[in-house]
Amino acid sequence: MKKTENCEIYMEEYLALERNQRLPFKITWHLITCKDCRSKVRMLSEADKTCKKTSSEQTDIYNPTIQSILKQLNLPLEETTVKPLSLAPWFIGGLAIFVAIIFAVLGRWGESSQLGIYIYMTLATILVLYIAFFIFGHMDFFVKKFDTAENGTGNQQAIDSEQTETSAS
User: Fold this and answer.
1) DSSP per residue, 23-66
2) What is the pLDDT of residues 105-163, one digit of tens each?
3) 108 exposed, middle or buried (CB, 10 Å; 0-12, 13-18, 19+)?
């Protein structure tokens, strides 16, 4: 196989990967040994960074140009309001589960092993479901809180430094 055909195969595999997905060893090795592909990957990562910068800029929806387009499309401009997040029901529910666990531990239900097992398993299931519903109900918060791609910390820096080291070779 010619070098250009080999490079095309590796570049197709590289482009088929998801953003920030770990590079397989064979692609990493090819990028270390092939200067052309390394420079292509470097240009792609620079283009991606440039697109991220320009796409993160906020567009003013009240801009006259956007307003005229919306009027031509007959789309109403609706302001979306975000309901404030109230954690009071979750706090009360968690407190109720905590109190139930304390009563189960301190109560005399542990003397009867059969009844105690059912009570403890029921409370454990309720606790797991409570935590799961809380996390799934507030997934957008957790995604925003722990998103490393947007704020440039965590794994993103490690991936960028890995690509820089690979491209420097």
Assistant:
1) PPHHHHHHHHH-HHHHHHHHHHHHHHHHHHHHHTSPP-TT-HHH
2) 887 766 677 888 888 899 999 999 999 888 888 776 666 656 544 455 444 444 454 45
3) exposed
